[in-house]
Amino acid sequence: MLGIVGFVPAAQESTITWNGAADRVSADVRKQPLFSVLEIVAHQTGWHVFVEPEAARSVDVKFSNLPSGEALKKLLGNLNFAFVPQTNEASQLYVFVTQQGNATRAIGTNIVAAPLTKPKHVPNELIVKLKPGADIDALAKSVGAQVTGRDDKLGIYRLQFEDEAALEAALEKLKGSNDVAAVDYNYFYDAPQKPQPVSNATANQPKLTLDDSKPNDPCHPVVAVIDTQVQSLGSDLDKFVMKPVSVVGSDIAVATGLTHGTAMVNAVLDALAQSSGGHSSVKILPVTIYDAGEQTTTWNVARGVQAAVNGGATVLNMSLGGGGDSAVLNDIIQQALAKGVVIFAAAGNTPVTTPTYPAAIPGVNAVTALGAPGQLAAYANRGNFVSLALPGANVVQQGTQSFVVQGTSTATAYASGVAAGTKGIDCATWSQITGAMQEKYPVPQK
Fold first, then answer.
1. Which residue, among 243, 232, 377, has the nearest Cα to 311 in the 3D structure?
2. Is residue 167 domain-shared with residue 40, that is, in the same domain?
3. In the 8-state DSSP scheme, what is residue 83?
4. Which among 267, 302, 300, 299 is positioned nearest to 284, based on CA atoms?
C-alpha cells in the first residue's frame, strides 16, 4: 500500500471532554482557533452556538474536572458569554465581545441551511464553447447577441443579450446547434472567506528546503492555486512560488490584510512540508481569477483552469465553489483531467448534501473539512460527491499579525499539498495517491 503521511496542523491538536450528566469538563487545548474550539463544544453538548465574528482569537488552556460554567470561563478567557437553556430544543450559547445581539455566526451542530435557490448568474449573459471551425460572430448574430468576451484558443465566448427572455430563447437554440460543444449561464461563485485576525496564536510556518528539479519532471509537480491574489510569504517560502498568472488583467483585488490566495498557498506548503519530509522541488503557480471586488464567474474559472494547465500545472487547487453546474467548465475540466492533471476542489461551507461545483464534477476530488479528528466541521458540506476530509483550520502569519483561516477551502489546500508531496517522494500515479488519501482521510459518516 502506498504510504501517505498523516497530516494534522498544529491548530488542530486539542481535546475537550464534556460530561453533561455529571456537569464536569476537562480540556487540553493548545493554540486552537476559537471557532474550532466552539465547534468541539457544540458537537459534544448538542448546543446551538453563536459567536460574534470579531471574537476570533486563539485558545490555549488546560484544566480538569471543572463545572461547565467555570470551564466556559477558562475556554473563553475575557470574552463575554450567555447560556440560554431550552426545554424542548437545543440550548443556546452566545459568545461575544460587545453585546449578545452581535453573536450572529452559527456554529451549532444542527444548523438548518438556508433554502436552496437557483444559482445566480451574470444577468443577460451566456458562455458558449464552439466546435472547431465554427464562426462565433455569425452564431452570435443568429441569436441576437453581442460577443463581449472571447478566448479563441479555448474556443469559449461570452454572449450578451438584451434581456433574460432573449437569453432563455437563445439558450435553447444554442443547445441544439451543431456548432456548439457546450453552452450555459455565466455563474457567480461564492466569495472567498476572509482570513480573520486572531490574537495570541502561533502561526504554522512551513519548514521547507527547495530541491533542484528538472523542467517538466512528472515526479515533481507544479501546484496551481486558482484563487485571489497571492502575497509574499517571506524569502524562504517565496522560492517555491512561480511568477503569478492572471486572467483578470489589471483588475486584481487590492491586497489589504491577508488574502485568501496567500492563505491557501501557506496551507499547501504546510502540508507539503509534512508529506515530503521537509524538502521538495514542488512549485506553486498562483493563478488569479478574482477581480477587485473579490468576485469571480464561470468565465474566469474556466480560463483560470486553462491558464494553469498551460503554465505546466499538474495539480489544480480550487479552494472555491458555487451552485452552478456549468457545461462549459465541465468540458474544460474534462480536458485537463484527460491530460493527467489531478484536481482538488472545496465541497462548500453551508452544511448541506447538495453538490457544489466544480467539486462535484466527475473526476474532481471533492474535499470537506474536519472540525476535530474524526468529526466533520459543523459548517462543512457532506454530500455523496465528497471523497476526502481534512482539517479545516490554519493560522497564518503576516508581519506581526496572525490570521485564522477556516473552511473547506483550507482542507482542500491541505489535500493538494499532501498529494504533491507524496508524488515527489515515490512518483506513484495520481490514482494510487488519491486512492491512498481516501483511506487515510475518509469522510466521517456522521
1. 243
2. no
3. E
4. 267
- The C-alpha atoms of residue 402 and residue 224 are separated, in whole angstroms, by 25
Domains held by the chain: number: 3
Expressed as residue numbers, the domain containing 345 is: 196-440
* Sign for the pseudo-dihedral over CA of 96, 102, 105, 110: positive
* pLDDT, tens digit, 9 for 90 and up, residues 176-225: 999 999 999 999 998 898 888 877 777 777 888 888 766 667 788 999 99
What residues are paired with 84 via a beta bridge?
92
Q: Is residue 113 part of a domain?
A: no
Amino acid at 150: R
Read off the pTM: 0.81
The rounded distance, in Å, linking the Cα atoms of 389 and 276 is: 20
The burial of 91, by beta-carbon neighbours within 10 Å (0-12 exposed, 13-18 middle, 19 or more buried), is given as middle
Tell me the C-alpha distance between 437 and 428, whole Å: 12
Rounded distance between C-alpha atoms, residue 281 and residue 180, angstroms: 41
| CB burial string 242-272: b at 16+ within 10 A, e below | eebbbbbeeebbeeeebbbbbbbbbbbbbbb
Structure confidence at residue 111 (pLDDT): 44
Whole-angstrom distance, CA of residue 220 vs CA of residue 426? 10
Which three cell numbers mark 9? 496542523
Same domain, 280 and 263: yes
> Domain boundary at 187, 214, 234, which?
187
217 and 346 co-located in one domain: yes
* 166-186 confidence digits (pLDDT tens): 999 999 999 999 999 999 999
Same domain, 141 and 232: no
Q: Which helix (H) or strand (E) holds 59?
A: strand 58-66
Query: Following DSSP, what letter does each residue of 295-347 receive, concatenated?
Result: --BHHHHHHHHHHHHHTT-SEEEE---BS---HHHHHHHHHHHHTT-EEEEE-
- What's residue 56's pLDDT? 77
Nine-digit cell at 369? 473539512
Distance CA 355, CA 234 (A): 37
- Establish whether the linkage from the previous residue to 358 is cis, with ω within 30° of 0: yes
Please report, as a single letter, which amino acid is at residue 353. Answer: T
How would you class 148 by CB atoms within 10 Å of its CB: exposed for 0-12, middle for 13-18, buried for 19 or more?
A: middle
Residues 6 or more apart from 299 whose CB is under 8 A from it?
A: 127, 149, 156, 158, 186
